[in-house]
Design a protein that fits this description.
Layout (H helix, E strand, L loop, with lengths): L33 H9 L8 E2 L2 E2 L5 H11 L3 E6 L2 E7 H7 L11 H4 L1 E2 L4 E2 L4 H11 L3 E5 L5 E5 H9 L3
Length: 166
Amino acid sequence: MKCPDCHKENIPGEELCTGCAHPIQAPSPRAPEGDLARRVRQGTVADLNPRPAVSVLPDASAADAARMMREEKVGCVLVATAGGVAGILTERDLLRDVAGLKDPSAVKVSEIMHARPEMLRSDEPVTHAFHQMAVGGYRHMPVVSDDGAVGMISSRDLLRYLSAVK
């Protein structure tokens, strides 16, 4: 790193110049610029256009849940009770826990769902959705709007949001 005072080349990481003892500061990283950076910094989960969630009851069979996912063209369903969202069931859960192992019509959704799933609020930043999905290894996350409605976003929605930059 070059000293801003005497211009002597110094070893990276040095705090003081070896030639003149002037403090050497690393250049501050540039903030990302452009439409993509702005969208990521300013966007909210609502901007991902969550779709209405498809739901099943806890006592529905895995076969019924799979049929519903296929018909609705979705990769997961929420498991709903009178008290709200009890769980989430994804296509991965069906493949891992049922396919080729058990009779799908004999397995209850409540036996294979993920109970009490993490949920996003529609007013949270897009960056939070990226973080939660990446850290949790989720491809789908429920979204609660201000009026209490529950929607769903997927990793595909995040990619679509990023690729929409003009």
